[in-house]
Design goal:
With 139 residues, the protein is mainly alpha-helical. The protein has helices at residues 12-19, 22-56, 70-85, 89-111, 118-123, and strands at 61-62, 116-117.
Length: 139
């Protein structure tokens, strides 16, 4: 063991319970796991609502800016990465997968003109769903 000597000749590792008790770390890990599952559930519900809105809508444009939903998916990915670093692999992988799926959905619906914000739809030449933009300089 390559630990440096600490207080009273004990290793630094043995002093950790003195500095922060173990229940503190367990509580933080449990809170992170709960928040990760909550963010994953919210992100899954948002994905469901976006897909449902696309199926129910008869147009491919909306007043709402779909890219604002990045504010839901990015924290889900971040929480997933954090809990993976705390050895909570299942929660982390699920959260990262759902967050990445949400970002992929946003990219897909924007690039294929499936659902775009109204002003962007006008600037693209009012394309039909899955039709390329009518202006060559706009992607």
């Amino acid at each position: 063991m390559a630990y440096s000597a600490g207080i009273e000749g004990r290793s630094i590792r043995s002093q950790i319970p003195i500095l922060l008790p173990q229940p503190f770390f367990n509580g933080v890990t449990k809170l992170m796991r709960i928040l990760t599952w909550a963010y994953a559930a919210i992100s899954a519900a948002v994905i469901w609502e976006v897909v449902d809105y696309i199926r129910a809508s008869d147009s491919n444009h909306t007043a709402f800016e779909p890219w604002l939903l990045v504010a839901v998916f990015i924290p889900t990915i971040v929480f997933g990465a954090v809990v993976i670093s705390r050895r909570q692999f299942v929660a982390g992988v699920v959260a990262i997968s759902i967050g990445a799926s949400g970002l992929a959905l946003l990219t897909y619906i924007d690039r294929t003109n499936t659902m775009v914000q109204y002003d962007r739809w006008l600037s693209r030449g009012m394309p039909l769903p899955h039709e390329p933009s009518r202006h060559e300089n706009i992607h």
